[in-house]
Design goal:
alpha/beta; Spore Coat Polysaccharide Biosynthesis Protein SpsA, Chain A; twelve-stranded mixed beta sheet
Length: 339
């Protein structure tokens, strides 16, 4: 059964629901455009610093540099960074100055006070509102088909090529499925390709039927088993096996701007019933999963063969740097990184 909030949104005129303006997906009016939205406002508590702008490439590049490079060569023409306002100069003078040479670059700000009318930040809260709220910071900037990713995850060249192919196909279908839902996608990773040897990770484990995402189960503590034969997650002190071939969400979604209105409405409902006023977050996978279950969007699951690299912990940094050097040596990336 659809929830009351969804029914309320369905009853609105199309423009009020967040549907794109005429000509969306075609800013220049001549070719199909794609935007990459990078969520870079997180706090990185496990890592112990602002890992989004911690150099990992031989020329001082950040993980974000490689994402922008891979997106540009896959056909994306613009990148929008979602950051904290106080970090603007740190981003603009580094990765911004580098990537703006080959792709249009913009910055928007995640603001804790950017709340629906009638809501206020709970007294004492310092934690950002989560990835779905971060994406809403781009709602007045993005008017074409777009991909959204994390700033601190290395997704690999194949992932952006797969995403671009889906977005182009969706545009050809006017971003609608045959059933009338908004045509979205998630590029999922093999779980075994997303683990670190330095501790547990949090992953969304995806349930897929007929190539479509039907459910996402968040597991807060996943590690490789001692014998390496599987992964395992901890819950209430008990470790339960997970197959290494399970599909893991790394927050790599392809979306239409039509989703902004729905995510915004969902955020208001989230705020009305906060389990923990200091720590509860509005996660993007949760928000999209809900829209899919209510028949508003359809999320095709595209699987990437790429290996994920990331710096969940400080001890991950040197292995990631070594992996980047190996990719450069194999000819996957130029040095210096430039198109």
């Amino acid at each position: 059964m659809n929830d009351p909030q969804t029914e309320k949104i369905r009853s609105l005129p199309l423009t009020a629901r967040g549907d794109p303006p005429s000509g969306f997906g075609n800013r220049k009016g001549t070719v199909f455009d794609m935007t990459l939205v990078i969520l870079a406002a997180g706090m990185g508590s496990r890592y112990g610093g602002m890992k989004q702008i911690d150099p990992i490439g031989p020329g001082g590049e950040f993980i974000i540099d490689y994402s922008c490079f891979d997106a540009a060569r896959a056909g994306f023409d613009r990148v929008v960074f979602v950051i904290k306002r106080e970090n603007l100069e740190a981003f603009r003078s580094t990765v911004g100055a580098r990537v703006e040479k080959y792709i249009k670059t913009e910055f928007v700000f995640q603001d804790m006070n950017d709340l629906p009318e009638g809501y206020e930040v709970p007294e004492g809260r310092k934690k950002p509102w989560g990835t779905a709220h971060a994406l809403l910071a781009a709602r007045n900037t993005v008017d074409d088909c777009f991909a959204v990713i994390n700033a601190d995850d290395f997704y690999g060249r194949e992932t952006f090529a797969i995403m671009a192919e889906h977005l182009r196909a969706a545009e050809a279908r006017s971003c609608r499925t045959p059933g009338g839902r908004y045509d979205c996608c998630m590029v999922g990773f093999r779980l075994g390709n997303t683990l670190t040897e330095n501790g547990t990770v949090s992953r969304g484990i995806c349930h897929v039927e007929d190539g479509r995402l039907t459910d996402v189960t968040e597991r807060a503590a996943i590690r490789r088993s001692a014998d390496g034969s599987c992964a395992e997650y901890e819950e209430n002190g008990v470790w339960t096996p997970l197959p290494l071939d399970a599909v893991a969400s790394m927050n790599c979604f392809g979306l239409t701007p039509s989703v902004f209105g729905y995510i915004s409405a969902g955020f208001a409902e989230f705020l009305s019933d906060l389990p923990d006023p200091m720590k509860s977050e509005y996660y993007l996978p949760f928000a999209l999963d809900r829209l899919a279950k209510n028949g508003i969007i359809d999320i095709a699951v595209e699987r990437t063969p790429a290996k994920w690299y990331g710096v969940t912990y400080a001890a991950d940094k040197e292995p990631v740097k070594a992996s980047i050097r190996a990719l450069i040596a194999a000819g996957e990336y130029p040095e210096p990184l430039a198109l």
